[in-house]
C-alpha cells in the first residue's frame, strides 16, 4: 500500500510571462482518491497540473507536498512520490519502447547503484498492464499515436509513485482503449491506493471515473465535489457556455451529460 501524502495548492497564481492563466486558486488533492479536472480549452487545467507537478512555479502562493514547499524539495525526492504524464511528451529520437519505459525507474536509481530485479519487475508489470509487452523492441517514433500513449502511460506506471498526475491520458486512444486505460487507473487506485489527478475532456468519462470532480473556468475553480453535485446544467453552462440536460448514466448511475445543440433545442431560451 502507498504512504499517505498531502498535496495542496494555496492561493496559487500561475501564468506565462505577462499572461495570467490561473488566479488565486486553492485546491486540496484528496489522498487515495481519483480527482478529475474538467473545463473548456485554455481555462487553466493543464497549467494547474504543471504546477502540481513542479514544472511551473507559482508567481504567487505555493504548492505544498507533505507540508513542504514543492519547489524547494530535491528533484529525485519529488519524483519518487509524484509522477507526471504530460499532454504531449517527447521521446528521445530512436529510443525503443523497453528503454523508454525503463526510464520510469530513474528516480529510484542511486549513484553507482545497479539495475535490480525490482526494476525489472516494475517495467515488466507496467508493460503487461498497458498491453505494450509485444512492442518492447520497437522504436517509439514508429508507433501509432495510441500505441505511443500506452507506452508513455507504462513509463509513468513503472515509476511506481504514490501520486500520479495525468494530462489527457486518453488522447489518441479509441473509445475501447480509453475505457481500458481509465479502468487500469481505477485498479491502481483501488488496489494500491495510488492518488490520481487527471485532466479529461470527456465529461461523461470524467463523471464515471472520478471520486471528486473539479470544474474550472477562467483560471478559477467554479465547482468541486462528487460528480453528482458538480454536473448540473447550470454549472455546465457556466463552464462551457453550453446548454445541456443531465440524466443518470444507465451503466454507472453517475450523471450523464447530454449536450443540446442549436438544431436540437426545443427550448426558446437556447442560445444561438
From TrEMBL:
Bilayer topology: Peripheral membrane protein
GO cellular component: plasma membrane
Segments forming a coiled coil: none
Subcellular location: Cell membrane
Record bears the keyword Membrane: yes
Alphabetical GO biological process terms: iron ion transport
Name of this protein: ABC transporter ATP-binding protein
